[in-house]
Amino acid sequence: MMFDLFEDSKKRVHFIGIGGISMSGLAEILIDYGYTVSGSDRVSSNLTEKLQNLGAKIYIGHDASNVHGADIVVYTAAIKEDNPELIEAKRLNLEIMDRAEFLGQIMRKYSKGIAISGTHGKTTTTSMVSLILLNANLDPTIMVGGEVDAIKGNVRPGKSPYFVTEACEYKKSFLKFYPYIGLILNIDADHLDCYKDIDEIHESFFKFAQLIPKNGCLIAYAEDKRVVDIIEKVNCNKISYGINKGDFTATNIVYDEKGCPSFTALYKGSPYYNFKLSIPGEHNILNALASIACCNFLQIDKKIMAQSLLDFKGTHRRFEKKGENNGVVVIDDYAHHPAEIKATLKAAKNYPHNRIYCVFQPHTYSRTISLFNEFASAFNDVDKLILTDIYAAREKDTGVVSSEMLCDAIYQNGVNVEFIKSFDDIVDYLKKELHGGDILITMGAGDVYKVGESFLK
What we know:
Blueprint: E1 12-16, H1 21-32, E2 36-41, H2 46-54, E3 57-60, E4 72-75, H3 84-91, E5 95-98, H4 99-107, E6 112-117, H5 122-135, E7 141-148, E8 153-156, E9 162-166, E10 181-184, H6 198-210, E11 217-221, H7 225-233, E12 237-241, E13 248-255, E14 261-267, E15 270-276, H8 282-297, H9 302-311, E16 320-325, E17 328-333, H10 338-349, E18 356-360, H11 365-370, H12 372-376, E19 384-387, H13 403-412, E20 417-419, H14 423-433, E21 439-443, H15 449-456
Parallel strand pairs: 1-2, 1-4, 2-3, 4-5, 6-9, 6-10, 7-9, 10-11, 11-12, 17-21, 18-19, 18-21, 19-20
Antiparallel strand pairs: 7-8, 13-14, 14-15, 16-17
């Protein structure tokens, strides 16, 4: 049965894992449409408390009785088959959907769905596009995988045909979406716990691009050969971009004293408009060009684009300056893939500093082992690297890989690195080692940001 956003609002929807960033966003959209919403999660958080204040019934802990009275049950990829609520929902023959399918069914109701995919840069680019649409008074519905100050969180319900969302390739979930405009920012080896190799990843991005209707548009990165292969094969409007190749390119690139770039965007070789960013790094020029290409297709005024990109100060956990302590600048970044690590550290080189200290927490055993050699060579731009334990997330430790093993491999590449297990011990070490003018970057998709917060205290 198809879920109908406008017809089914008398129904109660229950979310298993409602505290997740995407699930909480879906729940908030439904509340805005007048649904009765309930949900459960292992622990309370600011997201569950926000939903509770909006009227959702929140259960802490999973219990079969939580789904009683629900009409539709939505669950995340992290929920296992033995979850008592999922088992009970099946026993009661309730309508059950995974998060991606449910998001796709909601997206179906918006004629101008914008889905932003890619191994890296999704959250930042989604935020950039969202801010431009907001400032153009297009009243978009927005779902971002991070917290954005402009919308005071990760979601904004709107009432127009525009729906902007990240489209994640994990478990091929983006193949359940309905994009009018699809963006492919890059294609890299990741999530190798659910893909057998890069060729299967490439194939899933091609299938995503094929979801775009003929009158829609693919916005794609022209300096990635796998993405170019997809551009050549799909049958819809296409706009490419890159620093040096593509329909939209960048010239006259200049970095200010904080490493933030300004540039002239060219369209098919002719000057288009001048842009200045308030976030650092060449990778963010690419994110901006993707946003510009998308909003050009939507015929949004260039001045609105330029002002929006200047106003955009980044999302939380993306090269986010957390504060200073005795002249040491603390920056937190979500980078957890070798390509992201290199881009973040390259951006840090343009930031004023004496030395760059990085505390990295690897994310999942499967990613660490499958990209082991790439991780080993990703930290050449740091003066000192501290590794802490692998953040398990959804996985179990099988003993095949460890941070100590990665530490040895990084050391073999000539990097000043050491393994320190406890966050408290890391903070004590940093207090002794760091001096005014140094940068401390905490890096990873787990809870490594707590190191920076403790250091600032």
